Structure formats: C-alpha cells, structure tokens
User: What shape does this take?
Amino acid sequence: MGNFVIKFNILFVLFLTCFTFSLKAQNIHGVVRDSTTNETLAYIAVFYEGKGVGSITDIDGRYTVETRKGWNQLTFSAVGYITKTVNIIPGVTKNMDILLVPNDIMLEEVVIKPKRERYKRKNNPAVEMMKKVIAGKKVNILSNNDYYQYNKYQKITLSLNDVTPKMLETGVMKKMPFLKDQIELCNETGKFILPLSVDETVSQKIYRKDPKSEKTLIKGISSNGINDLFATGDMLNTALKDVFTDVDIYQDDIRLLQYPFISPISSKNAISFYKYYIMDTIKVDSVKCFHLTFVPNNSQDFGFSGHLYVLADSSYSVKRCLMNFPKKSGVNFVNSMNIIQEFDSLPNGDRVLIKDDMIVELSLIKSSQSFQVRRMTRYDDFAFDPLPNKLFKLKGDVIKEADAMMRSDEFWNRYRQVQLSESESQMDLLVKRLEQIPSFKYVIFGLKALIENFVETGSKEHPSKVDIGPVNTMISQNFVDGLRLRFSAQSTANLNPHLFFKGYYAYGFKDKRSKYMGEIEYSFNKCEYLPREFPKHSIALNYQYDVMAPTDKFLKTDKDNVFTSFRTTKVDQMNYVRKLFLKYEYETYFGLKTQLEIKHSSDEPTGSLVYIKNDGLGTIVPKMHTSEVSVMFRYAQGETYVNTKQRRLPISFDAPVFTLSHTMGLKGVGGDYKYNMSEIGIYKRFWFSSWGKIDAFVKGGAEWNKVPFPLLIMPAANTSYILQRETFNLINNLEFLNDRYASLDISWDMNGKIFNRIPLLKKLKWREIIGFKMLYGTLTDKNNPNKSQDPDLFLFPTRDGKTTSFVMDPHKPYMEFSVGIHNIFKLVHVEYVRRLNYLDNPDINKWGFRFMVMMSF
Assistant: This one.
C-alpha cells in the first residue's frame, strides 16, 4: 500500500509538472535567412545561452524553440555568420524571422584596413572597376526612353525602438498594459519596437521625353497612428518623407537628412571621396557578382560606408547596394542607418531599382528613448508604351486623385507590396486606447500647444473649426504697450474649406489702448486645413489697428512674439498704424508666385517719434496717410512646404529664389503722396560636399520719387536677440535712410570641418559658421531735408535733441561680421556679431551675441 501511495504521488507530481509546463510553455518559430542573398539558412543553431536548451533550423531555414519565463534572449549562431542575440518577451514573442550577416559584412560600419593604411588610387583594381561601374550607369537611365511609367508603393513606420520587458513593467508603460499587444520584433535589428504611426502611399510615375514632362499621380494614401492626434498630422508624414527621402545611387548627389551626400557611384566626386576595396565574388539571387566595399576618406565627413554587388559581366551594373553611416560620422540624432537597395533587369534591357529600404534608429541624446523610422519602397509594373497626352495636361507635377484617401481594402490588397504587421494593422485600436487614458489628453493638449503653437477647440469626432493662438503672442511687451496681452483665433477648413476668418484683440497696460485685427480670406482651392496650403490661390481682406516699430515689418514672425519682444537696444520710435488692405495671391506648381495688394494706411507717430515738417516752423504732422498698389513676383523652382498652423515651412532651399516687386503710391485717392519703389532680390544655397554650405542673399532697390523719411528705404534691422535670415543684427531702428540700396548677406556653415580636427569639439559635435553682411546705400538730395528746403519733407527723427537717423556715405558700405557655433546640445545656435564701421553713430551696439534654437542633422 505504501509503495502504491509513493508511486501515485510520483505520478501525480509528474502529471502536475507536465500539466503546469503545458500551461506555461509556448513556442517561438520563424525563418532564418542570409541578409545579403535573402536565401534560407539550414542547420543554424538556435539556443538560450547557458541554459542548455535550443534547436536548429531545418532544410528550409525554419526553427521552433520553446520559451520559458525569465529567458529573455535567444541566440542564433553558425560558422561563417556573425552570431546574433535578440531580446524576446516570453508569452508575447511568437513569430520571429531572423537575418544573419555574413562575417565579412558589418552593416553598422565597414572596417577593412588599419587607420594608417597607405591607400593608393593609381593602379588600384577596385578603383579601375568602379570607373567602369560609373561609366556604365549612363545607360541605366529610364529617361532614355520616349515614354515610361511605373507604380511605386511606400510605407513609412515610426516606432519606439528597443522596447524591453523592464520598460513595460515600470513607469508610464506599466499603466498601459495593452502596449504589450503592440510590441513586435524588428528582424533586421533584433530589437523590439512599438509602432506609433504607419503611412502608406501608392503612386504612379509617368514620363514623356518630347516635349519633356513627368508627373506623379497619387492613387492612394493611408495614415494611421499618432498622426490622427494632430490636425496637422501630415506635417509628420511630410517631414519624414523629406528627411528620409528616396535614395538614388545613380544620381551624383543623394539628398538625405536634408543634406546632399556623395553617391558611391557619383560621376563627379566618388573616386576622390571614397576608398574602394574588392572583397570577393559572390552569388546574389543566383547571379555572379563582384563584392566591393567603400568607406569615406575621412570618417567624420558626411558620407556612406557600405557594399556594392556588381554584375560580373560587361555591363558592370549594380545588383545590390548596402549603405550606412560610419560610427564616427558627425550626423546628429542618428544612431544607425541602413539602406538596402536591389536592382533588376526589365525585358527591354533597362536596369531599374525595384527595392529601396531604409532603417534608421534615432535619439535626441544617447540616454533617451530611441525611435526607429523604417521606410520600405517597392517599384513595379514598368511599361514603355505611349501615354495619352491628356495625362500630361493635368495641373501640377504631383496630382492627388480625389478619392486617394478613401481607398477600399481591395485597393490596398492589390497595391500593397509589403504587408502590414499585426501591430501596424491595429493602429486605430492603439489610438483609441491611448485616448481613453485621462492624463493622456492633457499630454496631447500640451504637445499641441508646444508643437503647433495653437490650441484646438474640437476633438477627433468633432474636428476643430476654430483654433486659439498663436500661443507665443499671448503675453509680450514693448516700449509703448508696456505689458501686452493678446487673444487670437483662426478658423479652419472644418468650418468652411474655402472661407477663412482670423483675428486678435490685444491690450497695452502702459498706453491703455486696445489693438485689434480682423481678416477674411477666400481660397479658390479647396483646403484641407488652412488657406496657405501650397499652391495658394486666395484673396484676403484685412483691417488692423496696432502699434509697431517701422522695422517690425522685416521680422519673419509675429512682431509681438514673446521671444522677439526683448530688444538689444532702445526701440521707442514707433507708430500707431491703422490699415486696410486687399491682397490677392496665386502660386503655381512650377514655383511662380504672383501677389497683388491694394492698401490704405494711417500712421500716427508715438513714443519719441515725431513727424516735423521741413518748413522752418517746426510744424507737427499728427498723422500720415498713404494709399498704394503693389505687385510682387517670386520664382522658386521645385520649392515645397510643410504646412503648420502658424506658417508654411519650406523643406528645400537648394533652388535659387528670385523676387521682383514694385509699389506705387496714389496721391489724392486717400493718400498724401505719390511714390514708386522697386526691389529685386536673389537667394541661392551652394553645397561644398564635406565643406558644408553657403547661403547667399543679394538685394537691391530704389525709391524713385520725392518722399518724407517714413517712405524712404530703411535697412532690414533686427533689434531682437533672435537670429533671423535676411536681417542686420547691429543696425538700429531707423538708423539709416536711403532711396537707393544694395545689400549682401552671406553665411558659411562649415559643418564641423575645422572643429572635427579638435578632439573635444569633435566629441561635442559642435559646428562652426561664419557670416558677413554688407549694405550700400545713398540718399539723393531731393529726399535729404539737410540739403533741401522742400516743406513736403520731414526732419529726420531725433531723441533727446540728437539726430538718430543718418545718410550713408555711398562710397562706404555698412558692414558686420559674425562667427558662431551651432549644434550646441544639438539645439542651440550662438553667434558673436561685430559691427565693422559707422562706429561713431550714437546709441549703437558695436558687438553682441545672438541666439537661435535650431535642430539639424
């Protein structure tokens, strides 16, 4: 009986053990592939390090291994491959495909030769082969055909990166247990990610050689995730597309992270910029290829390291390309970037890109939570048949079909070439769960106010019809207002997609006056959110009464922005301005903007500004009335924008920008003066490879008639501590008055070319910038009250009996110089500015420091 009991107990314990194990044990399964050839790998060891538990892959590369609580890492190992250890979450991780990297390839960085190697280009077989690759790329151009078309599918996923089990059990994530359902493994990095947004686009590219025309037809758009939490969610998607744009190695320069990088097969600079090495011959998709590696001459330069697989035939065409940033690269925020491209032959013999993938790991600082951006692009359905002319008559280079954002599941099943993961397909559920957390609403509210500078009055179910803001103008100060409070609002397309309203009310506690503005604008285009969306076509009527300094018109932001309201010098010569204007704006897709404006204004001097007639009697003019008509043309080929609630942000500065304007004053039609003023300007950015970039502005203008000083041309003075493009930092308000001028503004961002040679500064990633500004100006005698007795002129402004406005020496241009450091803490830009002449003018600053918050890669 005792033996029976013992045996029963043993059997019972074994039963419970097996039962318990069957409840707790779960399996992970997947496929292991070669990262280069994409072929499945058999007999790969899969095991828990030090646990004595594991498995191997079968002939098809498949494996199955059990999971146990507390076992959070799984290792994959085989001879000839780099051992890979990945994190897992027992009970959550169920399917995991793995890519193993051959041990002669390091995707994160190519290290081939010692640092002090003696690299020679002459008689170097690798260099000679690359010359043949570069020469052969001339025939691999689709535009050699009379017509072509193809479809493009792109998916961009933004995710939290390197999510660990500990993160899910502590802090904020502990209160959101549903996040465990969203975690998935990134096979390429072996890290767990939490997808936050996924954006898909299906488009068709069409091309005609004669007459040359190319257009992109957007057929389908899908956006899900945190984009839905912001009314201007397209800003995130557009910015991601611009920063992590498509890569074309057949172009000489690859635009990425808003910088031009030298392509490894650039016809101009590749041979001198990169070092090349022949590694071996290898079969890629069963095709024999030469395997070459490349690295920049200087690892601190903005260039790639990587691998080229070149067809081992007379074409020397690229079959596959793997690229990444060297670890020592000075690129900000990017912890790693891997680009994988594959090319194939079409029936007509053309070589085309069929796959373009990019995986980027980002973080603001090393110790902060990192993010992953994954862009996957596929090209297919290439055809070369003649296309109907009506397609090329469509308006614009990029045409979005009317129902592009309302495509059915059938559409996406047809065109989606990269399937959504389970987490990506559940974005709507994630957003709903986040919105149900009470504290999360306040977080989003604060982020909207910070990022968008406006506060919505609606919700996702009832989109905002009116937004409150800009937030940064609600409280400010100036000499006349003293403390100034302002309330502003604007309507959105949710109220009416064509008709928009905006306005503000402000009150100055020093002068005890109310200020206000109201505007109504009609957009001829149907807008998605705001009337400024590119290409703009609208007419607006505006009425405003406010106080401002004459040079406030040169600020690119609101004049009562709290950050620009603090001045480097005393700005007490101001005006109460009452104006009414009607403005028409029309932009074209090819970059031409036309603006017509009719304006009437009444200026009442205040503070220490007084209008005194040049009649010898000291007659004071209480107000000056003007009526004018102006026309402006601006041409910026290829310029595009990101729309925000406050303004449009240009995302490409490479093309030259030309401006031409003329303003005509109308006397007797509500105005006191007749005048004509013309201005012309050009801007261009020049890239110098690893030596950074130069931005250059050249302007000129003339006031042709006799006018009092408020209608003369004053320099674009910036009296705030905040740096602003196209302004002078050390010229005072109304300091110089001209009726002819020419100006030059040039700045050279050297992108760390010098600082990278200094160990400490190289580690800090500081970057140097130098600038020079110059102004030529003159005033003809007819407009100079010191040389003319004409009573229609006004005496120059004074303060405490001293003249504060001056006539420039036409042979002595005003000059100022600046030297600065940017990328301090990856955000702060500081410049020391120095005035070089006109140093005897009263109340000037001879030098100073100016600041800007600027994020750049």
